[in-house]
Amino acid sequence: MNKRERRMIRNSCLAAVPLLFLSGAAEAITLYEEKGTTLDFSGSIRLMFENAKKTDAGQNSTHIKDESSRFGIGISHQIDSDLRGFGYLEFGNDTQSAENKFKLGNRQAYVGLARRSLGDIAIGRVLSPFDKVARSDYTYEYGGVLDFGDRYIGRSTGSSDDGKNDFIGRVSNSVRMMSAEFAGFSAGATYTLQNGDEVNEINNAYTLAAFFRQANLRLAAGYGAAEGNGERAKKPQNYMDSKERVKAIKEEIWGIGAEYTLADLDLSLAVDYGRLRIKNGNQRSGDAYKKVNGTPKAELLGLGANWDWGRGNLYGGYYRKAGNHDANNWREQRYVIGADYELTKKVVTWVELAHEDQRADQYDKVTDRLLGLGLRIYF
């Protein structure tokens, strides 16, 4: 969830988050409303200038980038006073891609039922409740730690940016349940059926998340686990003359998040902490598969602060990922400072500066400096 979306729902019930369509839907355009049926259209165009400087390699480049621009259509029909049916379709694209490489991405697509007194259930391509656990990321582009990303220690489930296998974010072929809020508590879960036939695609994935809010305090905790198709997958080419099957990698993550707002100062402070573990199986390397030795693990830490001064915010964060010996002692730490300003509720500009260090046993240290200047138009 990005910063603006988070600000819009900060004081709303977490159980209602899936029904806000997560795309600026608090300000969605209502296309149709009659006899208990509402059809909404929402989305945003998100572009940024980015200057990236790799101080170790002497590289310096500036580009215009797309930040996951998207649009969505949501429908809701009131069945009775307490029961409602809903559905949502959301698509996105890299708007800066070449004409012959344009591809509309399927971000979310689900239908479900919601009972005000209990919660909701949805099936399809959904957003996991685990995505709401992190609290320390106040940034638009460069923050966050509990997603752990696609660059980390050869994840079994593919790239977090390919829109297919990130089981703690958006995931297809899934069932999601989210409770209503009771005395400040709410909880949610997802279960993902087998997602594809390739070895690196997931099978039997699930997530659990719980939330609590009281006055200016927000607490959250989540757990997720998945395994590759492994034994159920076809033999890869390099095993064509062998009876050996590819073993399934098992991956799990847990995380906790806490945020406290000093109302008199309009200042919010937050912390996230989690652990990632990958065990057993084989890891894909090109067209081949190699055995994973040991149990790669990572410690994940995020610290964030945000000062809301009305039309804008000043914010910062520190994010650290630290792998163990089996993860080649991989380290990444990033410092981010930034500010945003609302020209109107639908037009927001922001600027961020990030400094990042990465190192591992088999690689030289890499230092990056990232400067981003972005503009978002919501509709």
Automatic annotation (TrEMBL):
Q: Where is the signal peptide?
A: 1-28
Q: How does it sit in the membrane?
A: Multi-pass membrane protein
Going by the UniProt record, its keywords in alphabetical order are: Membrane, Signal
Per UniProt, residues of the Porin domain are: 18-360
Q: Where are the transmembrane segments?
A: none
Return the Gene3D superfamilies for the record: Porin (2.40.160.10)
Pfam families (UniProt xref): Porin_4
Superkingdom, according to UniProt? Bacteria
Location in or out of the cell: Cell outer membrane
**Protein name in the entry:** Porin
Q: List the taxonomic lineage.
A: Bacteria, Pseudomonadati, Pseudomonadota, Gammaproteobacteria, Enterobacterales
